[in-house]
Design brief:
171 residues; alpha+beta; two-stranded antiparallel ribbon
């Protein structure tokens, strides 16, 4: 994508905008995306072949990762026995480059385990921030004058606010 022209970037962005606005479910959006990219390939758009190849590669990666994660390990935690994937993704150096690799936990180095733990802690932080966002959005409905609103956008409008004003740094 880095080598695309501005016109190619714009055309692809418009395709994505169309997919998002014209279909509601993930399944329908995916089907529409496949159809639109296929149409662009038929129209000899070079970017479309690149997008299709990338999507195919990601799809295959998803399939083998899903299969690899069927290998499980049982671990006791807080009085429960949990089943966790035996294979996890780690970052490794290879030929001077950082690569992502799926590896069995028993063969990870302790440094890799520590790095993965740090990444998990960051994910917990990110989830906590997302929960805080949900709490702020839900609070809109509970605010005076917006109790019958069905969406955060409706509630903010009834309070004379934009959602960005409500959520922003001045809030």
């Amino acid at each position: 994508m880095k080598h695309w022209t501005n016109d190619e970037r714009t055309e692809y962005s418009e395709l994505l905008d169309g997919v998002l606005s014209e279909a509601e479910t993930s399944r329908d959006r995916t089907a529409l995306m496949v159809a639109r990219v296929d149409d662009a390939i038929q129209a000899h758009r070079a970017w479309a072949r690149e997008i299709a190849a990338e999507a195919r590669q990601r799809g295959h990666a998803s399939q083998w990762k899903s299969h690899a994660k069927k290998a499980r390990v049982l671990v006791s935690y807080s009085g429960e026995v949990l089943s966790k994937p035996r294979v996890i993704g780690v970052k490794r150096q290879k030929s001077g480059q950082v690569i992502d690799q799926q590896a069995l936990i028993e063969f990870l180095t302790f440094d890799e385990l520590r790095a993965k733990r740090t990444a998990y802690v960051q994910q917990v932080k990110s989830y906590s921030e997302s929960i805080a966002l949900m709490d702020r959005l839900i609070a809109l409905q509970e605010m005076s004058g917006a109790s019958d609103a069905e969406t955060p956008d409706q509630a903010a409008a009834r309070l004379g606010l934009t959602l960005d004003d409500y959520l922003g740094p001045a809030a």
